Amino acid sequence: MKKTFVVLAVVVSMVATMACGGAGKFKSEMDSLSYTIGANMGLNINFSVKDLNLDNDMVVENLKEFLKNGDVKSEEFMKDMQQLQMFMYTKYMPYMQVSAMHSKSDRTDTLPQLPQLYDEQYKREDIARLVGCDMAAGIKGAGIELNMPFFNEGMADGLKVESEEKLDEGLRLTMEEMEQVSNSFGEKMEAKARAEYEAQLKETTEASQKWLAEVEQMEGVKKTESGLLYRIDREGKGKKPSKDTDVVVVNYEGKVRSGEVFDSSYQRGEPIEFALNGVIKGWTEGLQLVKVGGQITLWIPAELAYGDQQRSELIVPGSALEFKVELLDLNPKKSKK
After folding, report:
1. What CA–CA distances, in Å, run from 199 to 44, 186, 187, 196?
2. 73 φ, ψ to 5°?
3. Are 222 and 285 in contact (CB under 8 A)?
4. How would you write the pLDDT of the chain (337 residues) with one tens digit per residue?
5. Cβ atoms of 241 and 248 closer than 8 Å
């Protein structure tokens, strides 16, 4: 195990690949999984965070507290992680660069040495809290309901390991056993995620198709060969864009099928300028149907929008979208010459 603070940034992937213990050593899959995750947390604190010279008990205490009550989506947590990143880049990484230039005999047993890691801005106890929260967030983010007694046992065992050469000693599972079972657990997680994705895609696609069929029956709505639905709400007096490379200036509002707005230049208080070949297909085609000064409403099938991509909490795979667009100007730079 190579000692590196960067391991804290990949706790989520580690948790997602670690799995259930060796045959016969635990009564259930979740028992062995909980122990394995705990053991890895203990080993990380024991070795990977060693150069930070933190109070391990304090890291563990904050890790457990965040597992119990922490919220990875909270504003407070986001600010904490920004602070931890700043500490890593401004304090820890420069320190490691200096340390690497000294032989082991030049380094004292008690860290830190210049440049100082801790000061009034970054106190040792604060960093211990942030490190514990960060590690716990990786577990919570994976959405695993741990069996806490086995997790605590694993972490305690990991903390007791004396050296990196003796990782398997004192653990109920060897590192090899953890590695062997990790693929099985990872495959189960992947299959579950894939099944959930496909179910959502099917549901959203069917609902989008039904919605577009209803829109198509509305007065004034027309349909192009590609399946794009549109309605000219206001005729303009200028030119229409005629090629993909044209640059347009627009105000717009985008909605999902429920009518909820997910993006709006009106809300931002300023129009946007872009080339037609730099946006989704539905916009590229649709903006060539309206004149400057006009307004158009576009109902865009998923295949002309973001397809099977998850773009946001509102734009899920298979989403058809609605846009109200005002074309304010065409090739503005060219027109000024």
Report:
1. 37, 20, 18, 5
2. -100, 0
3. no
4. 333 333 333 333 443 333 343 444 788 888 888 888 899 899 999 888 888 889 999 999 999 999 999 999 999 999 999 999 999 999 888 887 776 666 555 545 554 455 678 889 999 999 999 999 999 998 888 777 888 999 999 999 999 998 888 887 888 888 877 777 667 777 888 898 899 999 999 999 999 999 999 999 999 999 999 999 999 999 999 999 988 889 999 999 999 999 999 999 999 999 999 999 999 999 999 999 999 999 999 999 999 999 999 999 899 999 999 999 999 999 887 544 4
5. yes
Residue found under tokens 């309901």? 145
Domain ranges of the chain: 5-173, 206-336
CATH 1.10.10.60, domain 206-336, yes or no: no
As a three-state string, the secondary structure of 310-323 is CCCCCCCCCCCEEE
214 φ/ψ sector (left φ>0, alpha ψ -120 to 50, else beta): alpha
